């Protein structure tokens, strides 16, 4: 069957979450500059990134299919924590998250007949991590390419004391908000 939407993301996790909603999709991701603007608040940042990703895909593909994009960032003490550039940066992020609460912001942009934007904000509390814990976790390879240097759906689940909000939002695509946007565009996950 043909795709219902285009996913403007190369994240296998986002694709799996769309599969969970039973949404047929094709994947087309285009790189954009993800540098935060000076003094840009985390909420504005993730909204801008998701919107720019869907727009870049729409402009390049020139398709009638709706385009879904998302952006996730970890925020602790007002600091936006994107993907770590190297081991030192990942360990610094994990040390900052150790024994504290932080928030995961995920924005979803859907461009079709119109443009819809939704945001999920989830509080996550980590246990205290030892240097050995953080180094061993780095060596698993999981922190690479993950906002805040961790994957809640992977081995980092053992660090999570609690979450208040959307688990799928922390993974990278909040399903409640995504389903609502799709329904507004006439794509109902329950009726496919």
Could you describe the 3D structure shown?
The structure is a single chain. The chain is an alpha/beta fold. It has one domain: Maf protein. The chain is built from six helices and seven strands. The chain has helices spanning 12-20, 42-61, 87-97, 131-139, 167-171, 175-184; strands spanning 5-7, 25-27, 67-76, 79-81, 101-111, 115-126, 160-164. Strands 1, 2, 3, 4, 5, 6 and 7 form a seven-stranded mixed beta sheet that branches. It starts with a strand and ends in an 8-residue tail after the last helix. The mean pLDDT is 94.
Brief characterization of the structure:
This protein is an alpha/beta fold and 192 residues long. It has six helices and seven strands. Strands 1, 2, 3, 4, 5, 6 and 7 form a seven-stranded mixed β-sheet that branches.
Number of domains: 1
Main sheet overview: 7 strands, mixed
Quaternary organization: single chain
CATH architectural group: Alpha-Beta Complex
What is the mean predicted local confidence, pLDDT? 94
Distance between the termini: 11 Å
Helical content, roughly? 25-40%
Got a strand count? 7
Count of DSSP H/I helices: 6
Q: What CATH first level would be assigned?
A: Alpha Beta
The percentage of residues in β strands lies in 15-25%
Helix/strand/pairing category:
alpha/beta
Shape: globular
Order of helix and strand elements from N to C terminus? EHEHEEHEEHEHH
Radius of gyration, in angstroms, nearest whole number: 17 Å
Poorly predicted spans: none
CATH topology value: Maf protein
